[in-house]
Amino acid sequence: MLLSKVNRRKAGRFVPVVLAGLILAACTTQEPQAPAVDVQGPETGTSAYYLQQMQQSRDDSKTGWQLLAIRALINEGKSPEALKQLQALPDNMTAVQKQELSLLKAQYAVSVHNATGAVQQLKTIDLSSLSADQQSRYYRTFIAATAAQPTLDTLRAFIALQPLLQSTDEQQKNINATWQALRTIPQQQANNFVINANENILQGWLDLLGVYYRSNNNQDALKAGVKDWQIRYPDNPASKRLPAGLLQSMNMTAASTNTIALLLPLTGPAAIFSQAIEQGFEDARNGVLAQTPPPQTSGTPTGQATPATAAPTGTTAPVIGSADMPISATGPAPATATASPRQPPRPARMR
């Protein structure tokens, strides 16, 4: 009796030790698990990395790695390799993987300049089932597919993409691109757009385009119109950060054109006209109008300017025909080498 009790006690002591040994052995022999595959998330690796993970995977995650590899190949400009992987995909995929596949097919179509195919492929995708990163790629793909001929839906894609962008730099680039797309739309076509009543952001962009078309030739009116537009559309992204192209149009003042370069020949047969052209430009810039010809009365320069003296108002023929005074011509003369210096001051005053 005593011996059996002792044996049972010893056996009971060894059971926890044996169990612990079995658990430890199972942990040490288990293969390391591959990182999780998220086809709906952002791309963080290269195509080489994803292809390596695909080759090492033996479960359902292999298709996920293959989809990530296709996306990376498209972004890296390796369209033939991407097509090869697209054709090698299995038929049995999950719903999430099928949505990603449709998006990748549209991205591939854009990469091979098949805009029509890309738009048709995007129409088969359910936007509500996409993640934020996938929605961003969806709108970028649609914008790229319709960039040649922007439409109302292109503008909607720009607007939908704006809140999905994280950095201020990306948001400003999207605003600039939206304005550039707007500027490519003819004014008559933009005036005939019919939009929904709740599309306030889109309405603001179209009104801003109208302000530009009405006041583009008058900078003061353009600045006033844009300022009024910012008050009426405070929620529009462009209200806080105006497009770079619009700012450039608003800031083209006379001060921006006060420096004008003259390219004149210093040697050769035409060098004789350089001094006269430069002097005439300086007189025009300073507002000096000479009443008499300069002392130099070379016959050759006067003869070269004879086409200008053929104007109907030939009462000031000596002044018009002088090569030293090309700016002082008052009659409508054809464009000649001597008439070009009088043009720079005029655009500066108009702007």
UniProtKB/TrEMBL annotation:
Chain intervals with Pro residues compositional bias: 342-351
Instruction: Supply the name of the protein.
Output: Lipoprotein activator of PBP from the outer membrane A
Give start-end of the signal peptide: 1-25
Gene Ontology terms: biological process: peptidoglycan biosynthetic process; regulation of cell shape
* A molecular function (GO) term: enzyme regulator activity
Compositional bias (Low complexity):
297-318, 329-341
Record's PROSITE patterns? PROKAR_LIPOPROTEIN
Pfam families found in the cross-reference section = LppC
Annotated keywords: Cell outer membrane, Cell shape, Lipoprotein, Membrane, Palmitate, Peptidoglycan synthesis, Signal
In this chain, the stretch annotated as Disordered covers 287-351
